[in-house]
Design goal:
This protein has helices at residues 9-28, 32-45, 50-63, 66-79, 84-96, 100-113, 118-130, 134-147, 152-164, 168-181, 188-200, 204-217, 222-234, 238-251, 256-268, 272-285, 289-301, 305-318, 323-335, 339-351, 357-368. The chain is mostly helical. Among the domains are: 1-114, Tetratricopeptide repeat domain (Serine Threonine Protein Phosphatase 5, Tetratricopeptide repeat, Alpha Horseshoe); 303-369, Serine Threonine Protein Phosphatase 5, Tetratricopeptide repeat (Alpha Horseshoe), CATH 1.25.40.10.
């Protein structure tokens, strides 16, 4: 008989409570292996102890071993089907495995016992948003805001939900509500989100303010630098736009998209050699239709129409439904007063069954000129 066998029932309960308390303290301090030893010792005393089973679930979840965590939570639920700590842990584990439907199932079981839990309400709403289930996501965010009208997670989530579904004005209203609560202590992600709403709404001058504030907090933040560059591009302030494209490239010199944007800015500013340099850098990384179009536009600007058309025709072989390419070829022909060739080019686009308002209006313009 060992010492544990000699403990009375009350003493054993006290011993298990002490082990459990110490296990959770170790878990909180990230001493994972030691925490596991304490929880396993509890199971040696009581094989269905809920605290130990949930503790081991939490420990393995913290380690990133979600499947093992789930096994412990399930063992707990077999012994105690109403254990909300196990519901929460198993739901979070399934979320981490990107099994959102299963996660929602367990979170909703949790809410059956604790319907006003903000953390769970917002988690369910976030999961439905990622599953593109707008109405269900909205329902849970709204329920969270009924419980706490200023809850940051719910306000952020409602903003993302409406942004994802292209309702930029409503998204903006939620994020601005957060900004107005604490303008001097606002998260940089909210600032860039508000700025991005203004970009989408084409209110570029208003967007600049928020991206500037974001850069005050984090001078090299990619999203803020991109937002500044794109807003300046939107108001056709290409010199300032170029400043921010180049700042991004200083940190990320092989970003193909930004190389092309910088090339566009140099081209509009008539710095053609610099534009060609940046387009070529983009193409050295991978094919990029915008870089090819940019090079073709430089050829057109220098009246090298055959070279421009050859580049653009190459793009049609890769994507025969890119309306912009046909428009640029047509413009090359119109510059040479070859109206029938321009018209034939645009009709070729329509023959693919594609429709574009600008292409249609350009066809009518050529026919009536």
């Amino acid at each position: 008989m060992n010492q544990d066998d000699m403990l009375t029932g009350s003493e054993q309960n006290d011993y298990i409570t002490l082990l459990s308390k110490r296990g959770y303290e170790l878990l909180k301090d990230d001493k994972i292996s030691e925490a596991i030893a304490f929880f396993e010792e509890i199971l040696n005393q009581d094989s269905s102890n809920n605290y130990a089973l949930v503790g081991l679930g939490d420990t393995y979840r913290k380690k990133g071993n979600y499947r093992k965590a789930i096994s412990y939570y399930n063992q707990c639920l077999e012994a105690d089907p109403e254990n909300n700590f196990a519901y929460f842990g198993i739901a979070d584990s399934y979320k981490s495995l990107n099994k959102l439907d299963k996660a929602i199932t367990f979170w909703e079981k949790y809410l059956a016992k604790d319907p006003d839990n903000i953390n769970v309400l917002t988690r369910v709403a976030d999961s439905y948003r990622k599953l593109k289930k707008f109405e269900l996501s909205k329902k849970y965010y709204e329920r969270a805001l009924e419980v706490d009208e200023d809850n940051d997670y719910a306000l952020i989530g409602m903003g993302h939900l409406h942004f994802d579904f292209n309702d930029f004005k409503t998204a903006l209203s939620y994020w601005e509500q957060m900004y107005q609560k604490a303008p001097d202590n606002i998260d940089i992600r909210i600032l860039t989100s508000i700025g991005n709403c203004h970009r989408k709404l084409l209110s570029f001058d208003k967007g600049l303010k928020y991206f500037e504030e974001a850069l005050e907090k984090e001078p090299n933040n990619f999203f803020a630098l991109f937002g500044m560059a794109d807003c300046y591009r939107g108001i056709r302030d290409y010199p300032n736009s170029l400043i921010y494209w180049l700042k991004i490239l200083h940190n990320d010199p092989d970003n193909k998209v930004i190389l092309t944007r910088a090339g566009d800015a140099f081209r509009v500013l008539k710095q053609y050699e610099k534009a060609k340099e940046f387009y070529q850098r983009a193409l050295s990384i991978d094919h990029d239709s915008f870089a090819v179009i940019g090079l073709a536009l430089i050829d057109r600007e220098h009246k090298r129409y055959d070279e421009a058309i050859e580049k653009l025709e190459g793009l049609i072989k890769l994507n025969p439904q890119n309306h912009r390419v046909y428009i640029e070829i047509a413009n090359c022909y119109l510059d040479q007063n070859k109206k029938q060739a321009a018209l034939d080019t645009l009709l070729r686009y329509q023959n693919y069954g594609s429709k574009n308002t600008y292409v249609s209006s350009l066809i009518e313009k050529i026919k009536h000129d």
